[in-house]
Amino acid sequence: MGIPPLSPWAVLVLTPVLVGLWAPCVLSRQPNFIVILADDVGWGDLGANWAETKETLHLDQLAAEGTRFMDFHSAASTCSPSRASLLTGRLGVRNGVTHNFAISSLGGLPLNETTLAEVLREAGYSTGAIGKWHLGHHGHHHPNSRGFDFYFGIPYSHDMGCTDTPGYNVPPCPPCPRHGAAARVARKDCYTEVALPLLENVTIVQQPVELGSLARRYAEEAERFMQRASDRGRPFFLYVALAHMHVPLVPPLPPGPGRGIYGASLGEMDALVARIKEVADSLGRGSTLLWFTGDNGPWAQKCELAGRLGPFVGAWQRQRGGSSAKQTTWEGGHRVPALAYWPGHVPARRTSHALLSILDIFPTLVALAGAALPPNRRFDGLDVSPVLFGWSDVGHKVLLHPNSGAAGKVGEVEALRLAQYKAFYTTGGAMACDGSTGPAQRHQPPLIFNLDRDIQEQEPLDVASREYQAVLPAISRAYAQALQDIAADNVSVADYSQDPAAIPCCDVQHVGCRCQGAHGATRDPHVERRAPRLCL
To answer: Where does the record place the Sulfatase N-terminal domain (predicted)?
Structure first.
């Protein structure tokens, strides 16, 4: 890996990886892997985490049959950076993805970054991605060029293009235009010019997407992919990036009493995860590790269409305005639900309090597959096989939280965790439901919270207190060593340039790029004529 002389920081990061590499020796064959990533899901959106949530019976059962991680974090508090970190095991300051890509982006996850799919395919795996990509769709940034044998899904968030049945959003968005410029309605925060595309590999198979059938189609494609791999006798890696719980929400049925639109959509997500688990079990119970988590916390500005934070309310920030959820470095922005299920390997009915991250998925799956980490780069994730197997409950000693849009330069690390202590060098609030934002503030010395006593992040330690003075030197050293480690690394730079020609469009002659003869919900998507135009 091009390891330099070991600093205390390097020991902290690398030792658990080396310790965990022996774990695969107990496995008789390469396991299958399913990683399910929910979008904008709150820590409190699982009933197993938060008693007020009643709509996740299957996920709660998954927690009972596996291990639930209480202190699990996304690598950023917004879409593209979090996904890039999952697939590389590296923070955005290393892999170059510091903020979201646009529908007209020419670039994506830098091509010199090696993805988890590329490593596992080299190790003999069938690799498939289903759902939201959002790591670049133009040219060689498409999933098929980033290690995935099969792709079915949408190239970015499903609110980044119009549809014929827009679903529920705040504010609501109009449907796609049909009859030329006169029918187009400009609406703030809405995409009205180009319809949302659905891709199978590089072919646009539907534009606009019928959102109401998306969950069903994802489940069907996941089943087909797993069955194909099983029939060929190959292990598989399936990455399922759900549209749930990002807006717009399109619940399958009218919400029942007390459920609301969000609850009905949460129930649909729960059923989708259950179906994928059922298929995996039918192909050989105990042969597949299923890992469920989220890309970041709830999108608070969507009001009643946003998820539950649980106890992670970021009270200090709320008192000063703005949201403490998605796009922030408060716990509500990056602490996400996480479950692991693998009968016979991952203990059932276990709750882990190890400090873990979405960054850990990459090195852990690579180790379990018996593969090697890519050389000439450093990783922020750990091989946490011992935690998965219940042999240990020790994760990160230090975990970095990059700025994600609410305050500070995006991608830069200005908040970190050291054991139970959380330090902020910059704070700020994202847009809240009431439209307010919290001012960005620099803190030198940093704000420090003891999360063991103050999970709501309400009252920072008094800088004059003995506790603050005792922990500050350790935090300062860890922060300095982290920044030095990043500066010495092989760092990538993403191309964020844009060109309207990069927007996926199956028929430029039609308003909104509508596919000829495709009319959304008026046709069965399974028999719809495939568009000849390619995304690349």
So the answer is: 31-371
